[in-house]
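Following up on my earlier thread - several people asked me to post the actual chain instead of describing it. Fair enough. Here it is, all 180 residues.
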Amino acid sequence: PNPLKPSIRIFAIEDAVIRDRNLETLFKGMLIQNIQCLKLPRNALGNKGIQTLFHSFTDRVRHIKKLDISSNNIIGEEGGKIIADSKSFLQLFSIDLRMNKLGHEGFRLLIQSKNYPALTDLKLDKNKVEDSGAQQLVQICNMNSLKVLKLRSNEIEPKGVQYLANSYAVRNLVTLDLSS
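Reply from S.P.:
Thanks for posting it. Predicted structure:
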């Protein structure tokens, strides 16, 4: 056994094309047993890879606190549902979903989820979220511990900003980033 494995806390694979069998090999091994931060940006995981990550390794990823799956072509309602329905990442406090294509339907499912009770930091820059997504956030957000919400470069117009500004749902936020 490798004596370094228990000390690894951050594991990153960036700018690679990860196939399902590679994910399976990675998560079946002992390497990730103690990591707290998993960085998998720009790996072309798509909805199929996200399905594998969020629903196949529940016992292996429960301890992960930070997850970066930005730029992985996670698309629409299907992608949002895969993430929202997962009970694998119960200790997750930060998820980076920047530069995917969740849209307002995927966003709606994500913010309705009760499966992320510890989530404080949600990054959704460049996800094609529109005013209707902002309105849904105001009406149905179940993420009461959320402190940081980044929605940079989405399609939220002044009307959507108004929804957010007057919302009780975002009362605990410390950072709301709607920059373009």
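The two ends are 49 Å apart (CA to CA). That should answer part of your original question.
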